[in-house]
Amino acid sequence: MKTNIFKFKILLLVALMFISCEKDFLDDPQPTASVADVVIFGSRAGAEALLSGIQRNFRRQFTRTDAGGVYSLYFARTVKGNDFIQNSWYNFDYDNDNREPNYTRTIFNWEFPYYLINQANTLINGVEASSLSDIDKTELIAQGKALRGFFYFQLAMEFQHTYTYDSSLPAPPIYTELSLEGKPMSTLEQIYDQIVSDLTDAVAGLGDSRLGKSYVNQQVANGILARVYQVIENWPGAEAAARAAYGGDVSSVLDASTYDDGFDDISNIEWIWGSPQTNDQSNFFYIAPHAFTDHFNDGYFGTYVNREFAELFSDDDVRNLFDNTYGGGPNDWFHLTTTKFTFKFDSDMPLMRTAEMILIEAEAKFKQGDPTAHDLLFELQSNRDVNAVKSTNTGNDLYEEILVERRKELYAELGVEWFDAKRLRRGIPRTANHRLINSDLEPDDKKFFLKVPQKEIDANDNIDESVNDGR
C-alpha cells in the first residue's frame, strides 16, 4: 500500500527540531523519540522553541546547493528570467528545463514546502490542543498559519498555471492536520482560499512584537498577503496589506545609503523579514544569491547580468551596482556582474523589504485608477536617485514603469521578474548577451510550472500518473 510523503515518525521530527533549537533541554536529555507533547506545548517557551526550529529550517541545507531552503526557491526563479545569466549551480533552471517528475527542482519544490507545512501543522495542532492561555494560543497559531499560508503559496506558484488562467485547475493537496494518508489534488481556487484564510487569520491574531526579524509578526503576514492578493488580483486587498506591511510612511522606511552595503545584514531598516546566518550555524556555500552573484569573495562566481537590464539604471541610481569584472565585451555573457550582494558565511538573506511593499501599493493604486500611484512610485525613485525626474507616463506606460521599477529594486532577491511574468501571463524572451538564447518563456508557458514528482505519485493512493497528463 502506498504511503504519503508525510508518513514518518512525527514525534521524532518534532523532538529533533525542539532539542536542536532549545539548548536548555540538553541539560536533562530524553530519548528523542519520546519527547511528549506536554514538554513542547506545556509552555509558551516550549512552543516557541519549536517555532525557532521551523524558522531555522527556512535556511537549512535541505538536499544540495541548489535545493537548500527558501533562498533556493527564490534564486531558481531569478535565473529563469532575462535579467540574469547563470553558469554554475542552477544551470538547469536557467535553461528552463528542470521540471520533469524525477528532477531535483521538482522534488525539492514539492517536498521542502510540505516539510515546513507539516511542521506548521505540528505547531498549530499542538497549540490548539494545549492548555496554554488564550492569548498565547492566538499568537502562536497565527504564526503557524502565516507560515503554512506562505508555503502553500509557494506550492501554488510552482505547480500550476497562475490563478487567473483557470482557477479550477488541479493544484497540490491541502493538509491542515498531521496525516498518514495522502490526499488528492486540490484546485487552484481551493488552495488560494486556504492561503487567504490562513493569512487573514494570521493578520488578525498577530501584533507588532516578535522574537526577531526571522519570525513572523503582523507586518510580515500582511506582506505575504499583499503578494497573494497581487496574484489573485484583489487590488484593494493588496493596497491595504502592502501599506500595513511597510507602515505607510515612505521616507521613514527607506535608507538609500545602505543599498550598497552588501545585502547581508538583517538589521537593515528596509528589511521586514529575513533569514539570519551566523558562523556557527552557516549554510556556507549554499547561500543564495550571495555565493553566486559575488565575484570578489570566495564563492561560485556563477551569476552575471544581462547588459540590457543594467542599461535601465541611471548613473546616479544607488542600485546601479554593475561591474565589468572580467573585461568582456558587451556581447559576452560574462560582460557584467553585480556587487549588490556580499558573500560571507554569516551573510543574512532577505525575504521581504519595505520597497517591495511600496511598489505593490503603487501597482494596486494604479489598477484601481488612483492617480497617486505615480506620486508613490516617484517617492521611491527619488530616494534611489537624487537626480530622478518624475516621468510623464500615463496609462499602460505608467504601469510598465512600475513593473520595471520592481525589477530594478528587487533584482536577484526573490525572482521578481519571473513572479510578475507568471501572474500577469506574460512571456520572458531572452535578449542581448545571454549564454543560452533558446530558453524563452512564452505567455502561459507550461515551463512556468513543474510536474508532480514521481515520488508523490508512487506514494499517494489518491494521485496517479494521469496527474501529469498535459503538463
From TrEMBL:
Superkingdom of the organism of origin: Bacteria
One matching Pfam family: SusD_RagB
Key words, A-Z: Cell outer membrane, Membrane, Signal
Signal peptide positions (record): 1-22
Subcellular location: Cell outer membrane
Residues covered by the RagB/SusD domain: 323-464
The keyword Secreted is assigned to this record: no
Tagged with keyword Membrane: yes
Segments traversing the membrane: none
Domain SusD-like N-terminal: 74-229
InterPro entries xref list: SusD-like_N, SusD_RagB_dom, TPR-like_helical_dom_sf
UniProt similarity note: Belongs to the SusD family.
Name used for this protein in its record: RagB/SusD family nutrient uptake outer membrane protein
Species assigned in the record: Flavivirga aquimarina
Source species taxonomy: Bacteria, Pseudomonadati, Bacteroidota, Flavobacteriia, Flavobacteriales
